[in-house]
Structures are given as structure tokens and as C-alpha cells.
Specification:
This protein has helices at residues 2-24, 27-42, 52-76, 99-104, 111-117, 122-133, 138-145, 149-163, 172-188, 191-197, 222-236, 239-242, and strands at 88-89, 198-207, 219-220, 245-249, 252-257, 272-279, 282-289. Helix 1 runs antiparallel to helix 2 and helix 6 packs across helix 8. The mean pLDDT is 92. With 301 residues, it is an alpha+beta fold. The protein is built from 12 helices and 7 strands. It is elongated and about 65 Å long.
Length: 301
């Protein structure tokens, strides 16, 4: 019986990881929530569960709600900006099969979309993600949140209006062409070309949690971002740009660098991931993730 239950559980693992990651924005929390759901299932009367997928989805939802509330408390004293954990693979895909790889191929799990989800309150996020992404009925969501069905509907509605601000994803060719234009302009040190490669309303967000250097505040506008990026190149050395390796960040082209020890003329640089989003052929979002606690989603050889 245990073997049958375990086999059934494994068929739902990709779905549960998708639920966990979209709810928490954390690879670690998603994997932990799925493992905890398995432990709860193995200690329950599994034969009495009529709809295993729905039961597990609800369990993961409850676990993730607790994780979200804990994260909200941590964010109150967090140094700098807060970004989701990226899922990073080589351009050819993860070196070993990973269920999360299929999860992040979905448009709703692209990094820019995850950033917007992080702006929601925990109840809003649970209501919106479970209902709109995974078709969980509002009466079940209301039980998870311990609120009325009408309140659950209102939470999802407010979240929906916020999420509508997410730029629609562009196709891979447009995404990669826009990033290539930005990287070429940066390599040439041409500030006008860097500005031209950025959307006028572009934003740059860094997340290091106080562990290393990045932008502490959000940088707004193409001109300010261009000057900031070129200033980094001057500070750390032009050779550092060549150490940025093209990777897939949540399924889209981005970059990873293992960092540098520095030299007599340049300070050391910590490992980091750069995620980018594109709108109308220009880079509209640049996300610098340098907190080592948020690099557990690196699936590189």
C-alpha cells in the first residue's frame, strides 16, 4: 500500500512544486513544502482520500501560507530589496532531470511575474494563485485562510488587479535580441547605446540581503540604470563582464557569474544571477540576485 501511495504521490510532484514555487517564490520552500506534504500523506489514511491531487494541493497551500507569513516577518528587517529565488539552468537545460524545469517554462512562473507576486500580501497571493492558476474553489481557499468565501473572492480580485501590471512575456527571439543589444552596448562602454537598449521606464532591482554590494534602492529610468551599470564595469573591471555566463533564469535568457576574488585595482565580486525582462524590444527589468541564501535554485553542472 505504501509503495502505491508513493507512486501516486510522485505523479503529482511537478504539480505540487508548481504550487509551492508560485506561492512562495522560493525553490527551497517549494521543495520543503512538497516533502512535508508527503510526510503528512504517509501518516494519514490515504485510502480514504477521494481526490489525492486536490488534497495535496490544499496541504501544500496551507504549508506555503505559513512560509509566506514567516517570510513577511523577515522582510520587515531585511536589508535592501527582496526578490524571489531564481531557478537557473544551463542553456541546454538542467544537467539532471528536475521537475521545476517544466514549472518555470510556464509564463506565470517567469521571473518578472514572480517579482509581481512577491508584492502581494500572503492571503492575496494564496487566494489568487490557488484559484486562478490551479482552479482551487473559493470555498476551499476560504478554509485555508480561515475567512469567508466572499473575502477570499475579494482577495483574489485585488491581487488580479496588481498582477495585471506584469509586462506580457515576449517570445524568445525578441527577448534574446534585446538582451544582446544591452550587453553589446555595455561591453563597448557606450552610454547612449545602453540607454537606447533600455525601456524609458525600466527598473533595476538588486537583492543581496546585506551580504554583498548591489543596488540597495530600486533604480528607475534608462539613464540612471545605464550610468549605474557602466559605473559597475569601471569599478569591478571590464573583464568581469566577460565572466557572466549565459543561462536560463526561470526559462528565459539571463546570466550567472561565479564571482571574482578581485585584484589590486578592483574589489572582489560575489556570485550572482541576473534576470531580465523585455517589453517592446527593450529591456524593462533588470534583477540582480546576489544573496547566497537565494541561490539554491542553481542547477548548473
Amino acid at each position: 500500500m505504501v509503495a502505491i501511495v508513493a507512486e501516486d504521490f510522485e505523479t503529482h510532484r511537478p504539480h505540487l512544486l508548481a504550487v509551492g514555487y508560485r506561492l512562495t517564490g522560493s525553490v527551497t520552500d517549494a521543495e520543503d513544502a512538497v516533502q512535508e506534504a508527503w510526510l503528512r500523506l504517509s501518516n494519514s489514511a490515504a485510502e480514504e482520500i477521494r481526490d489525492l491531487r486536490a488534497w495535496l494541493t490544499t496541504v501544500v497551500g496551507r504549508i506555503c501560507l505559513d512560509r509566506l507569513r514567516s517570510a513577511a516577518v523577515r522582510r520587515e528587517s531585511y536589508v535592501g530589496q527582496w526578490l524571489p529565488e531564481p531557478f537557473v539552468t544551463p542553456l541546454t537545460g538542467p544537467p539532471t532531470p528536475d521537475p521545476l524545469d517544466s514549472v518555470v517554462q510556464q509564463e506565470d512562473s517567469r521571473f518578472a511575474a514572480m517579482v509581481v507576486l512577491d508584492s502581494l500580501s500572503p492571503p492575496q497571493r494564496v487566494a489568487f494563485v490557488l484559484h486562478d492558476a490551479f482552479d482551487v474553489p473559493f470555498d476551499e481557499i476560504a478554509q485555508i485562510l480561515d475567512i469567508s468565501v466572499q473575502s477570499a473572492r475579494q482577495l483574489a480580485s485585488r491581487a488580479r488587479r496588481t498582477v495585471a501590471s506584469t509586462p506580457p512575456p515576449v517570445d524568445a527571439a525578441e527577448h534574446e535580441q534585446a538582451i544582446a543589444a544591452l550587453m553589446t552596448a555595455m561591453a563597448n562602454g557606450d552610454i547612449n547605446a545602453v540607454v537606447a537598449a533600455l525601456d524609458p521606464d525600466a527598473v533595476m532591482i538588486g537583492d543581496a540581503g546585506g551580504t554583498t554590494r548591489t543596488a540597495v534602492n530600486v533604480v528607475h529610468g534608462a539613464d540612471k540604470i545605464a550610468r549605474f551599470l557602466l559605473g559597475l564595469i569601471r569599478k569591478y573591471g571590464e573583464d568581469r563582464l566577460q565572466e557572466y555566463v549565459p543561462v536560463r533564469v526561470n526559462g528565459q535568457l539571463g546570466f550567472y557569474t561565479p564571482g571574482s576574488p578581485g585584484d589590486a585595482d578592483h574589489p572582489p565580486m560575489a556570485p550572482r544571477v541576473m534576470a531580465l525582462s523585455v517589453r517592446d524590444g527593450k529591456v524593462v527589468g533588470a534583477f540582480d540576485i546576489a544573496n547566497p541564501a537565494k541561490l539554491h535554485g542553481l542547477k548548473l553542472a
